[in-house]
Amino acid sequence: MTHSGRAGFASLGHRNFRLYLIGQGVSQTGTWMQTVAMGWLVLHLTGRGELLGLVTAVQFIPTLLLGAFAGALADRLSRWRILQTTQVLAGLLATALGVMVVTDTIRVWSLFVFAAAIGTVNSFDTPVRSSFVHEMVGPDDLTGAVGIASTTNNVSRIIGPAVAGGLIALFGLSSCFFVNGASYLAAITAFLLMRRGEFVVTPSSPREKGQVRAGLRVVWADPRLRTPMLMTIVIGALAYENQVSLPLLAKNTFGGDAGSYGFLSSAMGIGSVLGGLAIARMGRATHRRIGYAAAFLGVAMLVGAAMPSMATMVIALLFVGAGSVAFITSNSATLQLTAPPQMRGRVMALYVTAIIGTTPFGGPIIGFIGQNLGARATYVTGGLACLLTAAVGWRSLAASTEEPVPDDEDAIIERRALLEGEELSSGKGSLPGGIPSVDD
Q1: Contact 435, 424 (CB under 8 A)
Q2: 70-125 tens-digit pLDDT
Q3: Do 365 and 237 form a contact (C-beta atoms < 8 A)?
Q4: Which member of 135, 143, 321, 414 lies 3.0 to 4.6 Å from 268 by CB, making a disulfide possible if both were Cys?
Q5: Nearest to 290 by CA among 233, 329, 316, 346
């Protein structure tokens, strides 16, 4: 049995972590159901891709603006209490959405209000949850615990959208919001049953002025960091907007319903899991692999754009999902291998921001393209962005080298990069399991 395997099973020995997994397994499934229902609700009310893109953008603006503040807050207050608060607020928002849908009082303006409110809750929930896993299991079992949490997220990502499609067909859109609201009761109960005396609390590193600027200077000065980061910004903005593209493809291209959207989302999830398994067997990441992954994703998206039916699109999305996780994983691991050890945390914080922070810009762009040029054009745009970015950056990638690190450190970096890739590719900002942190 591998070291990572022992670490994974050892993390299950922590009672608090077992409760956490149960609560999050239920809650995350509900979250994915709501993601499908929310996208379909926007199209149902407006029928316009631009508004779908704008609602998506509004949901992620708070994460971009408040993420750093939320991380600082997590160092000062009880993470256990913060997470209980976010679960209660998220459950109330989901239930309120369900009530407004079932009573036919939901309006376009209220969708923007709910999107901003949900985004604000998520902006506090995600960074706090990332460090809370460490608090439940301690440093020795952290990597295995994050791996199990990521697996839970992947299973929920596959099951949630498929169940959502069936529920919407049988009981209407409101059912997904009500089920999601109720699912938070499982998470809240799990938190209440935890033994607070078993938490492992470690002092946080001091936050100093200029840390972000220092990270930016390091990234910009080194083409081995600058090229992957710039590629991430472009590809993240144009190729990772599936919360906008998939509803438009399901409805406008294939004439499907919410169930069709759910199956497309589930196919992406399965592809991400398969891609993660393949990446895990490829050994140490390299800059060249970033270029290969970007090209693979680009070709997969272009093939997907040409698919004539729902059935063939589902098959194409398996490859799109695999390419998505391959690009993010290769990028993440390479940045960590290249960055100075004392700067890894800041470099990776910039990397996550480059992924999530592009949604307020990329979402409306993809929505506009989908509405005016057709849903297939959203995947053509994303595919061409991947191929062109890979071509422009290839010379720099081919000339780049990674810093040598010990095998045990490399294994940890590769493992964390894989977990980040699976979660980030599952939908920007929609990361119920949290992103594993990388310490300076």
Answers
A1: yes
A2: 766 766 778 899 999 999 999 999 999 999 999 999 999 999 999 999 999 988 88
A3: yes
A4: 321
A5: 329
Maximal CA-CA distance, the chain: 61
CB atoms within 10 A of CB 230: 18
pLDDT in tens, 172-228: 999 999 999 999 999 999 999 999 999 887 655 555 555 667 778 888 999 999 999
